[in-house]
């Protein structure tokens, strides 16, 4: 991927708004003090002082505001969150803040921390990159700061090699685990159960703590800075209506963004600014957020029925504009990283959309491919590149979001006179990274397998 183009605004909202982190933490409903006991351990929301090394560590948290070509009368903007070449997704700022909290806890207490997280791919990649950055900048020693990720085996091709894999010592301390079970989402209870059953013994034998880091607030704090960046780069004007579109699994990013908007709206001068609408984009494999927003239920029976057209070799429906009109399969998987069933965040997102407006759409691969040439051209004009061959695209979230917006405008799901802000939460081609080699990861199916790979007794 390349990053260029005139008229773009690029900044580092984490560093620029570092002083506001305590306010964001409070707005997320979090206490500054963590849970120090091994069972349920989490460090407090304290961050290291901004010395030269810490500033260098957070340098990867840059984001860009890019103007896209208007689409059918709608001004289009891209909130590009993919600039860190080691991750190319929005998970970088949150992961940097998560690991920074671990570093600060280590400095205050001397207690080593092992982060444990389930991940489809991108959260784990970003956490591993943040740990490696901390080690390389001398913020911690290898035995003091470690990370173990558990991913569905189906997502193996999206996982990346780095020095945490190629260095023998770091590979042993920071294992990559692949869950070889039937349900991808089972990585979450597997990781949680491993920490629950082994944290106390880990503390006794090593003096360290295991931290199950997959919590909403851990990501909302960083995602709240998106709102501050928007205000710095292109503030909303009185009377302007914006729609923020995001390809989502659990909508962590939008929930964090709205936390930031809440803080901005506390200022008296913000009284005349309308809160942006939210527009969710999903795929047919798991459309639970859109189903919940539309029908107040995750029940898949609310989705439209599809009829097979043997001439076109496609499934069709024309009843519900929030679902694809054409698809190769009524349950297709566009990108395996969108894998969360019945997300607990759905109700909160429904309330936000109910109060401030918005909606959602489910897109198909067929629709993404239909829009691919136009999307590729639009992104190229803004300074981003997609591969010429869409089969080379490994991360589809940005393409899904842009397809959902284009379909939503054409179907009237996005109202007129809206400025559309697309959250570029991830995009990368297979040529952008080196995938795992054979032997780089451990296959696991049980808590015992995880313990053996991690070296937990």
Walk me through what this model shows.
By secondary structure, the protein is α/β, with parallel strands linked by helices. It folds into 2 domains: 31-61 and 88-214 and 435-454, 3-Layer(aba) Sandwich (Rossmann fold), CATH 3.40.50; 218-432, Rossmann fold, CATH 3.40.50. The chain is 38% helix and 19% strand. It contains 16 helices and 17 strands. It has helices at residues 13-16, 21-27, 52-58, 91-109, 122-136, 163-166, 168-173, 187-206, 216-223, 225-233, 252-264, 288-295, 346-356, 365-382, 397-411, 447-454, and strands spanning 9-11, 63-71, 74-80, 113-118, 145-152, 176-179, 209-212, 241-247, 277-283, 307-309, 314-316, 326-327, 358-363, 393-395, 418-424, 428-429, 441-444. The strands form 4 sheets. A 7-stranded mixed sheet has the order 1-2-3-15-8-9-13, with helices on both faces. Strands 7-4-5-6-17 form a 5-stranded parallel sheet, sandwiched between helices. It has a 3-stranded antiparallel sheet with strand order 10-11-12. Helix 4 (91-109) crosses helix 9 (216-223) and helix 9 (216-223) packs across helix 11 (252-264). It is globular and about 60 Å long. It starts with 8 loop residues before the first strand and ends with a helix. Mean pLDDT is 94; it is low at 1-6. It holds the Pfam family DUF6002. This is DUF6002 family protein. It comes from Streptomyces vulcanius.
